[in-house]
Design brief:
mainly alpha; 2 domains; 69% helix; elongated
Length: 227
Amino acid sequence: MSTGLIILLIVIAAVVVLGAAALSLGRARRGGPSLKRRFGPEYERTVALHGGDTKAAERELTERVERHGDLRERPLDRDDKERYAARWTAVQERFVDSPREAVAEADQLIAELAVVRGYPDAGRYDEQFAALSVHHADHVDGYRQVHLVARAGADGGGSAAGAGTEEMRTALIGARALFDDLTGPGADTGRHRSASGAAGPTAAAGTRSHARSHAPWALHRSRPKES
């Protein structure tokens, strides 16, 4: 091999290495702002959970995107939306007399709904939460809070086990925001729409039922008993 060819190969290898380093640096610089835009308040919460270590938090969030960014949510038909809306209404009504049980039911309901929409199995909460955070970052913290309260109540230990009614109410309201996302307009297959595209009677009834189930009930209910 000639000296000239060896030098050429060395130059090419150096260019490749430098190009890869520049690309990696560019990604690192863009990672912070990009992750902040994508995750919003979940970005700050993740940094806080890592004790303020921004790099560790960004590594975790980047891994979430790599694992779940390509997930495509499965749609809900109108019947499913009405069924889940009715179950959420029942949870809200149960909260009046049995807030702790209602919170546990809400936790289970969201976990089940997430699976129906195509998210990881409810038995793997951490993985399911990570996937939800990628696609519903603005509202996923409500699920975190309601899950923590529900788990603490089930285990009978930890500070959250003594959660008061208002804390449970706040958790449930936050969880409802994610429930709204998972059952909102984007979740609908439109199976009951007419050929012209207008919603038929069944769809309209479902819309009214859905609206009733998401009324600001917590602002108007009498203070529930502590369970």
